Amino acid sequence: MHRQILATVAVFATALAVPLTVGSPAQAYGTRPASCNTASLCFYNFIQFRESDGVGKVTGSNPHLGVFSHATCKDGTWNNCMSSVWNATSRCFHLHNGTDYTLGYHNLAPNDGYTDMGAQTSLNNRVSSVRAGSTGNCNF
Ligand SMILES: [Ca+2]
């Protein structure tokens, strides 16, 4: 009888552990690249924080990445061109498919990144706007 109670307690403890796992921080991809040494959201036109003709950087929200020219991107701007990204700020960013913070988005917490947006998100070469929260909390 005593053994049976212990077994029941063990199962209950395992069940409790599941929500804690779900609530833990998202897996971080990569580490801060040397090219992102300021408090910016840094984005790259290739995976693994590689770029041609420069790193894209913003420090806050931007409703249309198309305002930033980038010659080697498909349409000559950062619109729909991001393939990897690092967040060196203290605020969470929402990376949106649409301009003006529309359509779907992925969260990107402070000190985290996506090294390969095609493998890790649905937004490779699709991010058109970025919205910063007021803190590192991504619920906004
Ligand atoms: Ca887009």
TrEMBL record:
It comes from the Bacteria. Keywords: Signal. Gene3D superfamilies: Crystallins. Residues 1-28 form the signal peptide. This is Peptidase inhibitor family I36.
